[in-house]
């Protein structure tokens, strides 16, 4: 199944945006405004709700004519594109979003045609599935691990690297003793929250000046 | 295939002169008329890419301009504004993108780069001190007679002399200058490992448009270039970076780590760079340097990382594997063909042999220059993603051990195996071994374009 790669689900949803000449600003601009101010890091709706590896929300106005030899085509509507690489079962993922961040969903999808709201979880799931199209291409950096497993693995990698750099060259008995203590501490440390633990990088990337 | 006219291309773009002495002179120009006159005087003296059939000249002369420098000639706005954004901004304003922060931020740069007064770079390379002095004296005379510019300052540089002979060493003690890329149409003694990988695993030259404007690049497109076409063609962009080297800190940390690493200090040094001090690629000679291999042009740049996916021979984070990953990202190396840069560089400051007292405060390092068709796609990408980040190498936030802007928080992982002489090892709390002391982005025009500047006939229509 093209939507599934191992335990990871590739979700693609295109929701038509309401076309109302009288709306000022237009519904698509209102979505853009809300998305531009959407929290990131631990407060991101996709960090608060369970199961998202990577998500992207894009307002697609139309397909752009790039000149010959392309042919000129247009969309019937403006669309909100939602792409997500998420854990496992689609319905429980969507239900998780509806239960955890309904106000964000309503503020965004409220500008889309036929959106029933997130309060009625079944109706929300039904709507999202009706707007779904098949995903054929995945974000390559997501491997066959759940979000929790991935966060755990990164935490372990960092901790083990620190342990090694502090203990390399110690005698075996001392090393074993330290390692046992280290493992106990690591096991009892909770996994970091999604969106947390990002090391601050003093480099500008992905900006409009690149 | 691109057919090049080497007499229209500045020689510095096509080849490293391999001359032992250099002076990089920085000019400020305040009158368009007089600056044009000076350019006209220098036009016939510029060293082109024409072959030296007889012998090397005593000295060479090349010239390049910042965006402000081009503006000082009062070129048409339509031409000035057609240059790529990063060149118009200049290196200082690109600090955020380059990660030139902390110790590398402009507050720590030499005064000359803070004023914004550098308009031109004039590169003199020479065989001897007297040849250098003669060439410089002639430049000064042209400047004086035309009043076309003011010398804001200059940087002297010299190949490092050991036991009375010039060597290709840099101050940390490594042999430098291996493996610039080959380009289609550029006549050069080429060797395997210097171009791009073919699907069959052979090496072929890169598209000319990765180096020179006006030719197809690896995507089959013309690189972004100023208008008119004739003003851009056969020109290239040059990045100048004065890289200070903290030799004392480097030696001290290498001693500390080397004492704890059972492979020994020299092997650890080789793991950091990816080459032993004499230049032998560690990928080909993981246990010791090999004087025969390193002298063999058929072998000394001819290797790939496909059979060393775990980095147990050449670490994933070593300098050479970062800046030229070859096939390390798969797809026969095709992911890197638009990220290659041509490097020129020359040490400055006094060389201090191993074991003698040395201080980080001494003025020593490398006057480092990059030539590429697109500063943002090539140099800036390499600097941002491969020097100061580790994601492509699957190393998270780790930076280049030697060049990275670590700020005391760096980490370098040496992947190892079961061989007791090749254990895994982690160097932590890396400081900046190299610090940026200034520089800028320059346009190195063709001879035709220089003539157009001198005659005042740059016309974008």
What does this structure look like?
With 210 residues, chain A is of the alpha+beta class. Chain A has helices at residues 27-36, 45-48, 90-100, 102-109, 121-130, 147-167, 172-188, and strands at residues 4-5, 8-16, 52-60, 79-87, 132-133. In chain A, strands 1, 2, 3, 4 and 5 form a five-stranded antiparallel sheet that branches. In chain A, α3 (90-100) crosses α5 (121-130) and α6 (147-167) runs antiparallel to α7. With 461 residues, chain B is an alpha+beta fold. The two termini of chain B are 29 Å apart. Chain B has helices spanning 11-14, 32-43, 67-72, 77-80, 85-89, 95-98, 129-146, 229-232, 247-260, 265-273, 291-294, 319-323, 375-387, 447-455, and strands at 21-28, 59-65, 120-126, 150-158, 160-162, 165-167, 196-197, 203-204, 236-245, 342-348, 365-372, 410-414, 425-430, 434-444. Helix content of chain B is 24%, strand content 19%. Chain B has two domains: 6-242 and 439-455, no CATH class; 245-338 and 376-437, no CATH class. At the A-B interface, α6 of A face α6 and β13 of B.
